[in-house]
């Protein structure tokens, strides 16, 4: 067996990690979709509570998107390393 170039190995692992971290962005999309769907159901059932439901949905969507932004940030940092 030959030796492995350490720089190539670190670069390859950084690219692999960036791809895996980018998969975390999928969770943000799923979370926002679920939040919006449930908010629509809630407003359809209780139209008088629309303001409260929409406010809660926006807060939940923001928290869900924050995890996707963190995953994207990690992916970009790993890409810069490669």
Automatic annotation (TrEMBL):
Q: Does the keyword Hydrolase apply?
A: no
Q: How does it sit in the membrane?
A: Multi-pass membrane protein
The record's annotation in SUPFAM superfamilies points to: F1F0 ATP synthase subunit C
Pfam families attached here? ATP-synt_C
* Matching InterPro entries: ATP_synth_csu_bac/chlpt, ATP_synth_F0_csu, ATP_synth_F0_csu_DDCD_BS, ATP_synth_F0_csu_sf, ATPase_proteolipid_c-like_dom, F/V-ATP_Csub_sf
Q: Report the transmembrane regions from the record.
A: 51-79
Q: Where is this site: Reversibly protonated during proton transport?
A: 65
Job description of the protein: Key component of the F(0) channel; it plays a direct role in translocation across the membrane. A homomeric c-ring of between 10-14 subunits forms the central stalk rotor element with the F(1) delta and epsilon subunits. F(1)F(0) ATP synthase produces ATP from ADP in the presence of a proton or sodium gradient. F-type ATPases consist of two structural domains, F(1) containing the extramembraneous catalytic core and F(0) containing the membrane proton channel, linked together by a central stalk and a peripheral stalk. During catalysis, ATP synthesis in the catalytic domain of F(1) is coupled via a rotary mechanism of the central stalk subunits to proton translocation.
Q: Which family does it belong to?
A: Belongs to the ATPase C chain family.
Name of the protein described by the UniProt record: ATP synthase subunit c
> Native species of this protein?
Clostridium acetireducens DSM 10703
